[in-house]
Amino acid sequence: MDAAAMQQQGERREAPRLERTWTAAYDFRVAQTQKARELCRRGPSLLAVLAVVAISEAAQPRAQPAGRELCSKRQIRIPCQVRFAEAPYVAFTSVAAPSEPQANQTLLVTVVDENSVAVPAAQVMLTEGGGRAVPRGETDHAGRYLFRDLHHGNYELRVAKEGFYEVIEKEVHVGETERAEVTLNHQREFSESVNVIYSPPAIDPAKTSSSKELTSSEIVNLPYTVTRDIRYALPLLPGVLQDGAGQLHVNGSSTREIVDQLDGFNITDSGTGAFNMRVSVDAVRSIDVESSRYPAEDGKGAGGLISLTTGMGDDRYRYSGTDFIPSIQNRRGLHLNTWTPRGAFSGPLRKGKAWFLLVPEGEYDVDIFRELPPGADQNSVLRVGNLAKAQVNWRPSQILTGSFLTNWFHSPHASLSRFNPLETTVDLRDSAYLLAFKNQSFFSSGMLLEVGFGATQFHIHEQPRGSQTYVITPDATRGNFFESSARRAGRQQFIASLALPPLRKFGRHDVKLGTDLDQVSTDESFSRNPFVILREDSTLARQASFIGNPAFEKDNFEAAVYVEDRWSPSDRLLVEPGVRFERDEVTRHPVLSPRLASSYMLTRGGETKLTWGVGVYYDASILEVISRPRTGQRTDVFYDSTGQNPLGPPVITSFSVDERNIKEPRFVNWSVSMERRLPSSVYFQAEFIGKRGRDGWTYVNQPSGLFVFENTRRDRYHSVEITARRRFKGGHALFAAYTRSTARSNAVLNFTLDDPLFSQQVGGPLPWDAPNRFQSWGWMPLSWMPRMKAFDFAYSLDWRDGFPFFLVNQEQELVAPPGARRFPTYFALNLFLERRFLFLGRQWALRAGFNNITNRHNPTSVDNNVDSPRFLTFGSLEGRALTGRIRLLGRK
């Protein structure tokens, strides 16, 4: 066996090979029927077919489904199946051609996944027998691509897309075959032996958006602080930062400027705009984060789009389990630390027709704070969730998918920290669910109609531990928190899109149009008690009380339509124009969002690509912001240095909005990037992103204590990002990135009735601004080490500037603007080893290692009161943590 053959054999695993079925029906005269049937009964062989053709001079081939017999008075069609062992996952339907070769032959390639769902934007490459390459193509929204002007003969067909295993069919007989259906299988952690082809990375000519992706392998194999929460995996991507509350920020944007999607449905909290929905990491097939140049289909998010795509079962029953053994901590004695069991179950409901996916998860944590006294130093967290999903192909051209995601969470002492003792915490309970249905209809013309409906609901309830007066001092708090609240937010979403067949006019046009209709609502209620603010000498500085116990509802209806085109004048140039039309009941006037993006392959071999784009993006109307006038009023009385005498009349704090003059926040985003394939398959990218926002929502403090809503906020963000990636066989990868950025606004402070801060609105860096950041991660086998060849090594590194914060005095007045101080430089290095092994006929993976192996504290809270004896004392400190993970991957 030569070296090339050995290498090809090494790239494939042993497995039963699937078969390619050719079905041909031939017409015979009645007198010749008996002999033809006799030949077919002897076996579905190629010789039988040739014999049938030889005895029938008038044979007229027609494609018919296998096993179907058609009769008429003049002819009988006898189907004969011919099976060949061919490359996996490829099924061809042969439509016989005349014996004389014709010029201008065509080949229609249809690409679907293992559940018969169309795969758009797949790269389709055809090579003639002599080695001459035919111009490559890209499948349309219905997963189809038509090759034209082909010569009669033998070709090699190659189909590839990132996230799928590549398919190569070496014998496609153009002139005998007019249609080819290719099934691409999603890349996954296979526990059984399968026949797959390594899919090498490549620069994607069909991608124009500024987007980053995490695959399921990267989500599972890379180490990050909280591997059970998908939100903690996203900061592995450059441009994505996570604040102390766990919320995400994409390229300088607030979390409420980002659209969060699950399988195409909006899961953003409709009341606050936060990312509060949770889904198990084992259910996620990929994560895409788009920050610029995203098309008109994606709207209502000027900051970007976070899109989670979940998996689906196939024709094999599969199961897996993770972290079903709890961990123990030795902190003030032995205690349960964390127990986060989760599993995944999938398989067929009916093979080839219907499949299911179940992904339950649970979490129980015990947090112990050494800075607090024993007996009042613990908080527990209990969380459960499940994703249930099913797909039914009830017709060959109709695919129905349904999903039901549930979340439930309880923390009896939420917000416990060194600055907030046990008595000041609240009992926090929240729940959420998503119910969604989507139907795809494929038409013979190549048109694809997609219709979906989704409903989300969020419930959050906070209850203080008692009714004692809440006291704020320069260095701590005591008493019981002053507010109990309940909030319910919901969204009903209807989406529809129509992808037209490709049009050919000065190139190829893939036109798509659609609509998005959302009914959103929030229902809130509050009950508040007075609180006091004391100086360092314990004298009374301020006393606050509230008027009434408000409760209110707020609704909004959002409507949008869009049209976009993917125009390919050549196989190297792609232009994507689009426009989106939006209107909602809060702003009450329509807005237009034109967008344009383009990519050009500078070299014919695909080694270098230049991409640029510009677009107008509008933010969604956040009901929590616009409803602040309905949250009530606060009365503040300020006292002199003795704490006995008021300094003046009470100051009434309230909020005001003129809903007749509200504008939607508007951003102009532009960006340009260059990608280059370097030697050793290293992929380099340099990108510039710029954002300018105007008409942002903010509240401006008036001298009387009235906060007035204004569309005067101006945001700006600029970044230069350099990345390098190297992928290896087996899915292993190395990645590094450096980002230089600035995120600033003229209105940084977020005033609310619960925040005692007194200040005029000021500008400066945004709270998540990090000018310099370097990241690196990867995982690889240790096969080069004789004693460690059975292990995989994984790491992640994150270094960045600390986030800015502002300073206040003991009266809770702003004394230094945002950006005057910053948290210490953040640095985290996580190192892990993993070993896979067989036990009891199942495949297992055991991992152990350290999070934050350098033991850097990386605080997320600080005493920012200049009059406090603990001024600039940092809290919520991290430390080195030895962690482990065990996974059951399934039956070998």
Structure description:
The chain is mainly β. A hairpin with a 6-residue loop joins strand 36 and strand 37 (591-601). The model is unreliable at 1-100 (pLDDT under 50).
How much helix, percentage-wise, in residues? under 10%
Low-confidence stretches: 1-100
Q: Give the N-terminus to C-terminus distance in angstroms.
A: 29 Å
Give the overall pLDDT as a whole number: 84
Kindly report the name of the CATH homologous superfamily of the largest domain.
TonB-dependent receptor, beta-barrel domain
Oligomeric status:
single chain
Tally of extended strands?
Answer: 54
What coarse outline follows from CA principal-axis ratios? globular
Reported CATH architecture of the largest domain:
Beta Barrel
Q: What share of residues are in beta strands? A: over 45%
The helix count comes to 5
**Cα Rg:** 31 Å
Question: Structural class from helices and strands?
Answer: mainly beta
Main pleated sheet: 22 strands, antiparallel, barrel
Number of domains: 3
Give the C-level CATH assignment of the largest domain: Mainly Beta
CATH topology of the largest domain: Maltoporin, Chain A
